[in-house]
Amino acid sequence: MRTKGHSKEHRSDPIVQIGLFMDTHGIPITYRLFPGNTLDKQTLIPMLGIIQREFSLGRIIVVADKGMTNGDNIAYALAAKNGYVLSYSIRGADKSCKDYVLDQTGYVVKNEEFKIKFRLYPREISVSTTGGKKKIQVDEKQVVSMARNMLPKLRRNGQGR
Predict the structure, then answer these.
(1) Which of 3, 50, 93, 138 shows its CA 20 to 30 Å from the CA of 123?
(2) DSSP three-state, residue 133
(3) Greatest CA separation found in the chain?
(4) What's the CA gap between 39 and 102, in Å, rounded?
(5) Is 35 helix (H, G, I), strand (E, B) or coil?
(6) Nearest to 84, CA basis, from 65, 110, 106
(7) Nearest to 13 by CA among 22, 3, 21
């Protein structure tokens, strides 16, 4: 299973991917190994299938980084009546999302360092089908949180345009 793959540490050695599911307390429930050249986003659907067959957990909320954010994973989670919390980079966002993040209206200041706001938003995602890719709309709750000192940095780096 050790093959050349994307190493987050930028190592050239062959690696093995691991799909790990944990409970709300951070205790591992199950895992599976994948060849090192398997993309992170390709491990979620098989792992969700395994965990739903082997365990009686009820509704699952997938919490993952942006490596898992793709239309197929979102559609699969929703079709199984599960939920998801996936990170999303403002760098890759469309103008509407960037404008929403940078607009100071609606933020609630949680303390001197942190602020948050959210919206319900229809988003179009691309899903694989037997006939190719198909666009579908999902209604998402988008949550934006930011350190209060991040706005000047985002604008300086051209994120606000």
Answers:
(1) 50
(2) strand
(3) 51
(4) 32
(5) strand
(6) 65
(7) 3
Instruction: Please give the pLDDT value at position 132.
Output: 93
Interval 64-97: pLDDT, tens: 888 788 999 999 999 989 999 988 888 878 888 8
CA distance 63 to 86: 6
Beta bridge partners of 138: 123
**In this structure, which amino acid lies at residue 120?**
L
- Type of residue at 123: R
Q: Pick the closest to residue 101 from 157, 156, 150 (CA basis).
A: 150
Q: Which amino acid is at 90?
A: I
| CA–CA separation, 51 and 60 (whole Å) | 9
pLDDT at residue 25, as a whole number: 92
Q: How many CB atoms lie within 10 A of CB 118?
A: 13
Q: 3-class DSSP state for residue 100? A: helix
Assess contact for 2 and 22: CB atoms under 8 A: no
* Six token digits for residue 50: 């395994």
Question: Which pair of tokens denotes residue 44?
Answer: 């979620």
Residue numbers in the chain where pLDDT is lower than 70: 148-161
